[in-house]
């Protein structure tokens, strides 16, 4: 069964940093476009970053503060989040689309205290 597992969330003060990880099993995540999303209650899920062989992209709200990367050997995608703000609070999910469909992890909570 295809699986994505996020980790690395937590509580951090504004201005701090966190690194999220998304580890895939039963498929090679780094062969596909991998995306990080976040969701805040009452709002739609927002894509914050993506990575593929073509490069990386960021939402304007995180550009210059977040860095997405991947480790092929570990079949893992990361999201380094720096200079965190209260508005970065949310549940962060990683996702990928394969020929089998869309795959999501269970999410990891990030809470930034101001």
What are the key terms here?
114 residues, mainly beta, 4-stranded antiparallel sheet, 57% strand
Describe this structure in words.
This protein is mainly β. It is built from no helices and 11 strands. Strands 2, 4, 5, 6, 9, 10 and 11 form a 7-stranded mixed sheet that branches. A 4-stranded antiparallel sheet has the order 1-3-8-7, with no helix packed on it. Strand 4 and strand 5 (46-52) form a beta hairpin. The mean pLDDT is 96.
Secondary structure topology:
Elements: E1 3-7, E2 10-13, E3 18-25, E4 34-39, E5 46-52, E6 55-58, E7 66-71, E8 76-81, E9 90-98, E10 101-104, E11 108-113
Parallel strand pairs: 2-11
Antiparallel strand pairs: 1-3, 3-8, 4-5, 4-9, 5-6, 7-8, 9-10, 9-11
